[in-house]
Specification:
The chain is mainly α. 78% of the residues lie in helices and 0% in strands. The protein is built from three helices and no strands. It is elongated. The termini are far apart.
């Protein structure tokens, strides 16, 4: 195991947490009419969670099956979750406030 792998995992978790909070804030602002969100955003919000969890679990399982260490499996799983949070943040950030 790489001695810095836990540090990298911690930073990845922090990044995912910050992105997720920003996405939640924009979605809540959208529900209040303050942020321009697509009409289907509430459905997408509920639909994407199981998909992201399955993809993250699959990435971790493949890493374990390939014989990688636990930290590499966790990193693979978090990379999938991070891919989803980054995509949501980029997509919602482009839309901007509804009064603009």
């Amino acid at each position: 195991m790489d001695p810095l792998s836990l540090v990298r995992i911690g930073f990845e978790a922090a990044r995912i947490g910050v992105e997720a909070q920003a996405v939640i804030a924009m979605r809540l602002a959208g529900m209040a009419g303050l942020w321009d969100v697509p009409v289907h955003e509430t459905f997408q919000m509920l639909h994407e969670k199981p998909v992201a969890v399955v993809e993250a679990t699959e990435a971790a399982a493949w890493a374990i099956l390939k014989g990688h260490s636990a930290d590499r499996a966790i990193s693979a799983s978090m990379s999938e979750i991070g891919r989803h949070t980054s995509a949501n943040l980029a997509r919602l950030s482009r839309r901007g406030p509804s009064w603009a």
